[in-house]
Design brief:
Blueprint lengths: L2 E2 L12 H16 L8 H4 L35 H4 L14 H5 L9 E6 L5 E4 H5 L5 E8 L4 E11 H8 L7 E6 L20 E5 H4 L5 E6 L2 E2 L9 E3 L12 E7 L6 H5 L23 E4 L6 E2 L7 H4 L13
Parallel strand pairs: 1-4, 2-11, 5-12
Antiparallel strand pairs: 2-3, 4-5, 5-8, 6-7, 6-11, 8-9, 8-10, 12-13
The protein binds ligand MTE.
Length: 325
C-alpha cells in the first residue's frame, strides 16, 4: 500500500497549479497498483523520458490518497517541469539544463544493485528484487541545495532504514557508502575526469541512514524518476544539502570507515561529510542564511536542518556543527 508518512516538519502546500495535475498522478498510483508490496517498476510506473514531458493521466483512476488537503501555505510543490529541468547531475554536465538535455542516452533498465561490506546478507540483485520486500511511500520533502536554491518535491520511495535492516549490518559497521554508476558512453560528463572524480560517492553514518526521514527514492510526482533526477534509484535525506542525495545508485557498502564523499574530496574546506543544512554556518564563498525557492521572487530564510530539526536534531547532540559541517 501507499503510505504517506506525516512527519512533524511536513512542508505545507495549498498551491493549486501543480496540485491538479499532481492529484491525478496520485490517483494514477492508487489506481494502477504501483503501491503493491511487490513492485515491477517498469510495468507499473509510466516511464518519463529524459526530456521534460508532463506525465499523462490514467483514465482508469479510482481513488485519491488522503492527506493532501492538510498541507498549508508556505511550501507549495515545485512544479513538475521545474523539478525535472533544473538539476544538478554532473555526470550529464555542469549546467542546470545539461541533465535534461543529455540524459536521454542513459538507459536505467535493467538495473542491478550490489550490497556489500560489513553485513550478514550481501548480494547483487535486480532493482525489482531489491525493492520487492519494501512498501513504497510518498514523502513530500524540501530539497535545499548547498548553492542556496530549494524546491519542494513529492517523492516516491522506500524507507532506507528498512533496507538497511534487511541486509543486517554487523556491529562493526558504522557508515553506509553509496556509489553512482559509471557509464561514460551514456553519461557525457563522465568522459572528463576534470569535472569530478568518478564514480560519485556519498555516505551516511549508520544512525543517519536509520533515521525515518531517509529514503531511497524511485519516483517523483507519482512517476518513475526521470533520468535527470537520478533514475532509477537515488538517496533523499531532506535535512542535508542536496549533494548528499546521490543519484543512480549501483552499490551500497556497510563500512567502519567514514566514506570520502565526492564533494569533500573536491573541496574539503567547502563541503564536509555531514552537510546538514545550517543557516548559521556559511559556505566560505556565500551565506547559507537564505535561499531562493525555485519559482519565488524573494529569498526566504533557511531553516535549521532544512526544517527537520525535530526529527534529526538528536543525531547531532554534542557535536560542534561549525567544525563538523
Ligand atoms: N548525484 C550524482 N551522482 N551526481 C551529481 O552531480 N548532484 C547532487 C545530488 N546528487 C549529483 C548527485 C546535487 S549537488 C544536488 S543539489 C541534487 O542531486 C540535485 O537533485 P535534483 O537534480 O533531483 O534536484
Amino acid at each position: 500500500m501507499l503510505i504517506r508518512i506525516a512527519c512533524k516538519s511536513d512542508p505545507k502546500s495549498s498551491e493549486i497549479t501543480p496540485k491538479d495535475q499532481y492529484l491525478n498522478r496520485r490517483k494514477f498510483i492508487a489506481g494502477t497498483g504501483l503501491v503493491a508490496g511487490s513492485v515491477a517498476m517498469g510495468a507499473i510506473i509510466k516511464p518519463v523520458a529524459a526530456k521534460v514531458n508532463s506525465p499523462g493521466m490514467n483514465p482508469g483512476l479510482k481513488s485519491v490518497v488522503e492527506g493532501y488537503s492538510k498541507l498549508g501555505e508556505d511550501d507549495p510543490l515545485t512544479p513538475y517541469g521545474d523539478v525535472t529541468s533544473y538539476n544538478n547531475f554532473y555526470e550529464f554536465g555542469t549546467g542546470k539544463g545539461d541533465p535534461v538535455e543529455n540524459a536521454g542516452l542513459f538507459n536505467p533498465k535493467p538495473w542491478e544493485i550490489a550490497v556489500d561490506g560489513l553485513c550478514a546478507n550481501p548480494g547483487r540483485m535486480g532493482l525489482e528484487d531489491f525493492l520487492k520486500p519494501h512498501d513504497l511511500e510518498e514523502r513530500i520533502y524540501r530539497l535545499r541545495c548547498v548553492e542556496a536554491w530549494s524546491m519542494v518535491v513529492p517523492w516516491v520511495g522506500v524507507s532506507l532504514a528498512d533496507v538497511v535492516k534487511r541486509f543486517e549490518p554487523s556491529g562493526s559497521a558504522k557508515y553506509v557508502r553509496f556509489e553512482t554508476v559509471v557509464r561514460p558512453e551514456e553519461m557525457v560528463g563522465q568522459r572528463s575526469r576534470r569535472i569530478l572524480p568518478w564514480p560519485y560517492i556519498e555516505g551516511l553514518r549508520l544512525d543517519e541512514a536509520m533515521n525515518p526521514l531517509a529514503i531511497l527514492a524511485v519516483g517523483l510526482y507519482g512517476e518513475e524518476l526521470p533520468n535527470q533526477n537520478g533514475a532509477p534509484i537515488r538517496l533523499m535525506t531532506p535535512w542535508k544539502y542536496g549533494f548528499k542525495s546521490i543519484k543512480s545508485i549501483v552499490k551500497i557498502t556497510f563500512t567502519d570507515e567514514q566514506p570520502r564523499n565526492t564533494w569533500n574530496v573536491m573541496a574539503a574546506k567547502e563541503y564536509g561529510f555531514y552537510a546538514n543544512v545550517n543557516p548559521n554556518v556559511d559556505h566560505p564563498r556565500w551565506s547559507q542564511a537564505r535561499e531562493r525557492r525555485i519559482g519565488d521572487f524573494l529569498r526566504r530564510e533557511t531553516l535549521m536542518f532544512n526544517g527537520y530539526e525535530q526529527e534529526v536534531g538528536e543525531l547531532y547532540a554534542g557535536m560542534d556543527l561549525r567544525k563538523e559541517y
